[in-house]
Write a structure and sequence with these properties.
With 293 residues, the protein is of the alpha/beta class. It is built from ten helices and 13 strands. Helix 4 links the parallel strand 6 and strand 7. Helix 1 crosses helix 6 and helix 8 runs parallel beside helix 9. The longest helix has 16 residues. It is globular. Belongs to the HMBS family. This is Porphobilinogen deaminase.
């Protein structure tokens, strides 16, 4: 039986449970094993502590043989290759961004000066570009904790990944789900990364059965933008790709934190990684490096 490492949050165990069930459908028994990370014990915003504390703890457990498989939110992984790991991308959840607001309001309907919670620079910059009047507040905690700020009246609204809401069973809480052309998501948002040790032939064969071609092509193109820009997952960089079975259409953007400037490029291609690099080069030519810094 495979041991699958996961963080202990409701969202993490739910999405890892989907991987466990998918392996079971292919005849591979597996069970979840909770891996506690330093980030789970911190009250600081993830942008301060860094998502690396979550992913590195899972990878340490994998490489030390404590678990056979690790499941990550793909957008949280470093863009550099990890030769000790064999990674695949299974079916992707909806990549869009979502608003949860009091009284069922949409972003346009929020009153002037409304308090909106998010700590992600990418979201902050796009919010300021769209609604410079908003009072943007830092946000920390799991999905349930974040939603409670709206329920308790401390915030008027929050921005979250729609994928997390859907996986957690909270999709109906969203008062608005944004088209990527309106509010661009993080590269590889909604995608999972499933890893095993590169020298574990049995686990490699098992997880390879879960590979999804569309999710792999789309997230590869999006993360290639991030890699070429040499930007971390908390940088004000966004990307959204669509795979049509033959090629990929990629749209990516880099934003000024104060909302004053937005650089957006779009292109099509059949090689996802090369397409991502091409779009990133176009952004760099327009001054993206200055905005990232």
């Amino acid at each position: 039986m495979f041991k699958i490492g996961t963080r202990g949050s409701h969202l993490a165990t739910t999405q890892t449970g989907h991987v466990r069930d998918a392996l079971g459908e292919h005849g591979h028994a597996a069970e979840l094993q909770i891996v506690t990370t330093p980030g789970d014990l911190s009250q600081a915003p993830v942008e301060r502590i860094g998502v690396g504390v979550f992913t590195s703890a899972l990878r340490d457990a994998l490489f030390h043989g404590e678990v056979d498989i690790a499941v990550h939110s793909f957008k949280d992984l470093p863009t550099a290759d990890e030769p000790r790991a064999h990674m695949i991308i299974p079916t992707r959840e909806d990549s869009r961004e979502a608003l949860i607001a009091r009284d069922g309001l949409t972003l346009a309907e929020l009153p002037e000066g409304a308090r909106v919670g998010t700590s992600a620079p990418r979201r902050v910059s796009q919010l300021k570009a769209t609604r410079p009047d908003l009072d943007i507040r830092p946000l920390r905690g799991n999905i349930e904790r974040r939603m409670s700020y709206v329920e308790d009246g401390e915030l008027d609204a929050i921005i979250l990944a729609y994928a997390g809401l859907v996986r957690g069973g909270y999709g109906d809480r969203a008062t608005e789900v944004f088209a990527p052309e309106v509010f661009m998501p993080a590269p590889a948002q909604g995608a999972l990364a499933v890893e095993c040790r590169s020298d574990d032939a049995v686990a490699r064969e098992a997880i390879d059965k879960l590979i999804d071609a569309a999710a792999t092509a789309e997230s590869t193109a999006e993360r290639a933008v991030l890699a070429r820009l040499e930007a971390g997952c908390t940088a004000p960089v966004a990307a959204s790709a669509v795979f049509d079975g033959a090629g990929v259409t990629l749209r990516a953007g880099v934003f000024a934190l104060d909302g004053s400037r937005q650089l957006v490029e779009e292109a099509q291609g059949t090689d996802p990684a090369e397409l991502g690099r091409k779009v990133a080069e176009a952004l760099l030519e327009r001054g993206a490096a200055d905005l990232i810094e």
